[in-house]
Amino acid sequence: MSRTELRPTDVALPVNLLVALDGSLFSERAITPARRLADVLGAGVHLWSAVRSPDEADDRRGRLRELGEANGALWEVHVTDRPVDAIPEAGDGDRDRLVCLATHGRDRSAGLAHSVSAAVLAASDGPVLLVGPRVPQGAPPGSWLAVCVDGSKDSEAIVPVAVAWAAALSLSVTILTVAEPVPESVRHPGSYPRLHGPRGDADAYVDGLAADWGATVPVSGRVIYDPVDVDGALLDAFAPEPPDLVVMGTRAPRGLRRLIFGSTAAAVAHGAPAPVLVVPI
Fold it and tell me: What is the pLDDT of residues 99-153, one digit of tens each?
């Protein structure tokens, strides 16, 4: 019996990937991963930017036109004093549009490239694709998708989302959790008093999730035992064979308005060798 009512077939995959650009070369790092995903999904790519003056708009239009022609993408530049107000439908419940942007993610903060990109991120009610500085611009070397859970019911809700993406991208899925290595409670058999990770048998937990969701694509579970470092443990797991995509959840109250400043997802986005799809739960 599945642990959430959401099914992979209920997940709406994007028909358009909106790449938020701020005029920096760093922000353009999000274009290639977005283009690769769009090609597989049969989706379009829309390059979007906002500037505060008409003079700046002319330069920005020239650059976006060049990038659009090179990537087969539509492009759009808005002139506005309030960039967040110009975001076309990004914050209006358009579930067919995936916002994509580059992020530094330094020092366990989102550290986005620019305030305009941050505004796009803040306005989105749906998933956001974060492209960190360690994501290669070449073809991804892996053939799997990593989905990270923490033992909570909330985090389990992103597993069917990950399975839907994996099916569309022809990837296998590995469900990862990081658990503090502690002995079983003497007073409460079957309980493990962890500071992080599932409170029960961690291996049985991920194996159960894999069994629940393995009908559509190959799904396996893996527990990483680490006493302290959740972020580093996940990144170490990616090193031998980098995944194509990492899926993580956030409990931000409105979309990603307060995206994980100081959270595991920001740190993983900074260090991961793959784009990170952050899903509000």
Answer: 898 887 654 444 454 555 556 666 667 788 999 999 988 877 679 999 999 999 9
241-251 b/e with 16+ CB inside 10 Å = b?
A: ebbbbbbbbbe
Convert the pLDDT of each residue in 60-99 to its tens digit: 999 999 999 999 999 999 888 776 566 555 444 456 889 8
Print the domain residue range for 83.
Answer: 12-131
152 with 118, same domain: the answer is no
Q: How many domains does the chain have?
A: 2
Spatial CA neighbour of 131 closest among 38, 33, 43: 33
The enclosing domain of 147 has a CATH number of 3.40.50.620
Residues in contact with 91: Cβ distance below 8 Å, sequence separation at least 6, in sequence order? 84, 122, 123, 124, 125, 255
Look up residue 156 and give its two tokens: 């389990």
124 and 157 both lie in a single domain: no
Strands 276-280 and 172-179: unpaired
- In terms of domains, do 43 and 149 share one? no
Structure tokens at 130: 């974060």
The backbone region for 42, taken as left when phi is positive above 0, alpha when psi lies in -120 to 50, beta otherwise, is left
